[in-house]
Amino acid sequence: MSLPLSVLALAEASPFLARLTRSPALADFDWIQAQAQALTAADLGQRLDRLVASGAPLATALRRLRAQTLAHLIVRDASGAASLDEVVSAISALARLAVQRAEAETRQDLIARFGTPRSSDGAEQHLQVVAMGKLGGGELNASSDIDLIFVYPEDGDTDGSRSIGNQEFFIRQGRALIGQLAEVTADGMVFRVDMRLRPWGDAGPLAVSHAMLEDYLVAHGRTWERYAWMKALPLTGNATEAQFNRTTLCL
Asked: Which of helix, strand or coil describes residue 148?
């Protein structure tokens, strides 16, 4: 890989960038384009699709996409081409994409084992991954972790031959999703995941139903927890941001 002189100079000053330049993820990275063009959410999706199409498992592809994204932002930021808004927007877009793709894959893996989670009246249930804090506000920086809450609409059971309860399904899915993002492998990690904003914090279940969330906020929710939901952004599932605002801020 031939690096432009400006990138070589940056790598000499930045051990972090120097490590990135030696990553397999950057073997065919276009440094000239990285310096000249801002990175969009569509670009991230296309890059991830190419990595997966090349045969990389999703967990590997996400970690290599992170390396590419950070390298892209470093050269643009150091050259003065990237604004603060560009940097935080690109990293936040990477996190949203990573959560959405990891949620989709972990869901299908569990459905193959246990069937589809359904409510008592047969409605299909989805894990609603809610971004809080800096991710909810689109303000992530290069060293940020991501604050998430896992919610699902209703209790019930899966419809497979090895049926399990919806909460167990979504707790299993949540653990798998966290592993996809936070586990450190030879390719590094994608994002550290902080789940402490969920009801009862570390002492509470990893995934809660809408009813459990509402009961918690009514009976135990503190003022700062209500304020935290002002940045809540649903990333997956079939709920809208307005639905979550009605559920939480209006209690």
From this structure: strand
∠ Cα 30 34 37 (to 5°): 125
Residue 148: strand pairing partners: 131
Domain range 119-251, CATH architecture: 2-Layer Sandwich (3.30)
CA distances from 158 to 116, 127, 137, 161, 173 (A): 5, 13, 34, 9, 13
pLDDT of residue 35: 75
- Interhelix angle for 58-78 vs 166-182, to 10°? 50
Query: How far, CA to CA in Å, does 160 sit from each of 93, 116, 120, 139, 206?
Result: 35, 7, 15, 40, 22
Neighbouring CB atoms inside 10 A of 127's CB total: 23
Please provide the average confidence, as pLDDT, over all residues in the chain: 90
Predicted pLDDT of residue 189: 95
State the Cα angle at 65 between 59 and 70, rounded to 5°.
130
Strand partners, 234: 130
**With contact defined as beta carbons under 8 Å apart, do 90 and 39 qualify?**
yes
Distance CA 144, CA 133 (A): 10
Q: What letter does residue 150 receive in the DSSP assignment?
A: E
